[in-house]
Amino acid sequence: MSKIKQRFVALPKPVKILLWVLLALFAYALPLLEPPIISTPGVDFGGVLFVVTMYCLVAIGLNIVVGYAGLLDLGYVGFYAIGAYTAAVLTSFHAHWPLLLAIPVAVVVTTISGVLLGAPTLRVRGDYLAIVTLGFGEIIRLVAVNSEWLNQRKGISDIARPPSIGGQEGLFEIPHLFWGDGTVLVDTKDTTQFLVFGVLDQIPYYWLGLTVVIVMLFADRLIKNSRVGRAWEATREDEDAAELMGVPTFKFKLLAFATGAFVGGLAGSLYASRQNFINPDSFLLLYSILFLAAVVVGGQGNRWGVLVGAILVAYLPQRFREFDDFRVLAFGLALVLLATLRPEGLFPPRRTVRAKHLEQELEELEEGAGGEESARV
Amino acid sequence: MLLEVEGLCVNYGHIEAIRDISFSVPEGTVTTLIGANGAGKTTTLKTISGLRKVRAGSVRFEGRDINDIPPYDRVKLGIGQSPEGRRCFVGMTVRENLEMGAFTRNDRKSAAYREDMERVLTLFPRLEERIDQISGTMSGGEQQMLAIGRALMARPRLLLLDEPSMGLAPKLIQQIFTIITEINQQGTTVLLVEQNAAQALKRSHDAHILETGEIIRSGTGADLAVDPAVKAAYLGGDV
Q: Can you list the positions of beta strands (E) in chain A?
């Protein structure tokens, strides 16, 4: 794995960019190609891919909170819910705004909710924060269950869709591939209209989701390499030492929380739009755990790692639908195995690997030398 | 006076860690607090840098009461600390640690910044050799150098050093103390906390002895080094 990475890094810049563009094009074309093995029999492939992009988005957001700033958030679905409900209320239940106007408002509302939750709770550390956020996720869901203003358990339907380009017919039609026995055909009857956000064809939603994910990846990279990213890293490693360097750690933790909420709210509002209907059951605690699983499985702190984690967590259960309830069992077993064999995740950031190895070595040394640190000088 | 501590009391819960201590650090000096484990040395430093809350009394920096100023703003005033146990950012490289030390500065591209980096790397040539190494993989002595260098990157007027000799080999301790003197001669005031009384007293202008949260003796470093009671208790001399 690291060899492939080394080779890639050694490539000249134009080649690297070209490879990235090809990868992106392949990702965009994936639902049209419907390659066998990868494609999901029995479930709409475009729909599965859309959900995958939502998990990717959520993983990027949660990774900022958990991976970069080191704040364990067990209630991330709360932000997802706030984004979704804000979009739902504004475009269907209490007003009829166009979606493109509702999404920015939903995102702002979610960000504010992140600050409101963070301001009192980020003063507690570690496990306590996990408990408080766990409660937050549940509170949001229970508010939705009980509030008439949010239509209680009945939920909200007719949430607005994104505007189609080129009217009902779209600008042009793109045929899908059809994989027969050993032959590949271009199926002119099975087409996707560019760009119509309708009921049946999920592919345009996937394209939208993928675009947002790519934009967020760029933003994530910018922020990680900035002064802010460094401050998060220092805070995560040693809060007191960070304060002594002049980092207002509380403000930076709050910023991480708000940024995470921003991304979560964006994902939630997109999800609500595609789904067209939401109710409190769309935002169970289980999703917080799955989101966190995506981040941890992939390797918290590494943006590509958490993307892989998100893809696995969202895609595999759909691919192996025929195994029914056994897939949950398999998922649980896989998590246990992973936690034992690769506790830092599939693709941990390099620093974590080194730091972990080091900690182990130091512990062994200290045990051996009876805490006599001078032995290592 | 650069730093004045007056009637300072600090608690951990109900336990009094520091009871009514007063001392001051004149500009340009090395001042030392010595004392045994649990005497309150680290607590005193943490209170000066703002990590601990004051129960009573005051800490004044350049005549200004800084009790209500949070630790991250005290760095901007000119108080830098190398904390107990070094506490480098172990996942970051040496260079990144030093950059972290300059977090409050916004002159990253200036000549002054490069000069400061240069100065730290001249003081600690070992750091230059290991500039791109992950700091956690370095020895205790190297990490101590990094912790001091990191604190210097903020250009502190007062440098707080918490047990820089802890856990180091005798030869290295000697080296660290020499560097502390050098830093002082370059114009930085140093407040040092130490258990290694012999070395510390030799190198400091003023010294105060802390015992169970109180200052029991003060004087110049040279005076205390020959004081019979101090010798008996801290320097392993005749009883």
A: 172-179, 184-194
Alpha-carbon distance of A33 to B61, in angstroms, equals 69
Residue A190 has pLDDT above 90, yes or no: no
Give every CB contact of residue A336 below 8 A, 6+ residues apart in sequence.
none
**CATH assignment of the domain containing B54:** 3.40.50.300
* B50: contact with A, CB 8 A cutoff: yes
Query: Between chains, do B101 and A249 touch, taking CB under 8 Å as contact?
Result: no
Instruction: Give me the CATH topology for the region A34-162+197-346.
Output: ABC transporter involved in vitamin B12 uptake, BtuC (1.10.3470)
Asked if B84 and A240 touch (Cβ cutoff 8 Å), the reply is no
Domains: count for chain B? 2
The whole-number pLDDT of residue A377 equals 39
Say yes or no: B16 and B51 in one domain: yes
Same domain for B146 and B160? no
> For residue A200, what is the DSSP state?
S
ipTM of the complex: 0.90
A interface with B, Cβ–Cβ < 8 A, is 227, 230-231, 233-234, 237-238, 240-249, 351-352, 354-355, 358-359, 372-374, 376-377
| pTM (two decimals) | 0.87
Do residue B53 and residue B96 come from a single domain?
A: no
Q: Which of B45, B49, B72 to mutate to test the interface with A (most CBs of A within 10 A)?
A: B72
For residue B79, the chain A residue with the least C-alpha distance is A244
Q: At which of B106, B134, B155 does a domain end?
A: B155
